[in-house]
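Researcher: I'd like a candidate sequence for this fold, 130 residues long. If you have to choose between options at a position, lean toward the conservative one.
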């Protein structure tokens, strides 16, 4: 009973499986380049958000995208370079924990600044002016 229930059901006679229609050669292997491409796109989207957003919450979300791109890289290199080790996955979990703490501190600072200034836009933060 180690195969799923649907795998035991027979298809209509002469009809190919949907997997055979989508991936006729038995599937495409996911290589390190695929993971690095996804991570690079995530990082570029996050960088674009940091450079173009005016709202602090949008900037924090973009920074989180950049952290997630680093996590994808760590997990991919861990899988392809050291498949038996867990160091990359452990480091990715540590980064996720630090990123969550960073969001909490950032939102707390934003709430304090919003109470004092009444705005959440970066241009209006002139805290160092006398």
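Model: Candidate sequence:
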């Amino acid at each position: 009973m180690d195969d799923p229930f649907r795998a035991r059901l027979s298809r209509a006679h002469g009809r190919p499986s949907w997997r055979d229609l989508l991936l006729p050669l038995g599937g495409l292997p996911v290589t390190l380049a695929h993971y690095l491409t996804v991570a690079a796109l995530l990082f570029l989207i996050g960088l674009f958000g940091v450079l173009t957003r005016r709202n602090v919450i949008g900037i924090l979300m973009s920074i989180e995208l950049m952290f997630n791109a680093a996590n994808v890289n760590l997990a991919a290199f861990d899988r392809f370079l050291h498949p038996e080790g867990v160091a990359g996955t452990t480091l990715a979990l540590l980064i996720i924990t630090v990123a969550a703490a960073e969001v909490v501190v950032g939102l707390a600072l934003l709430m304090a600044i919003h109470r004092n200034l009444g705005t959440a836009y970066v241009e209006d933060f002139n805290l160092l002016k006398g």
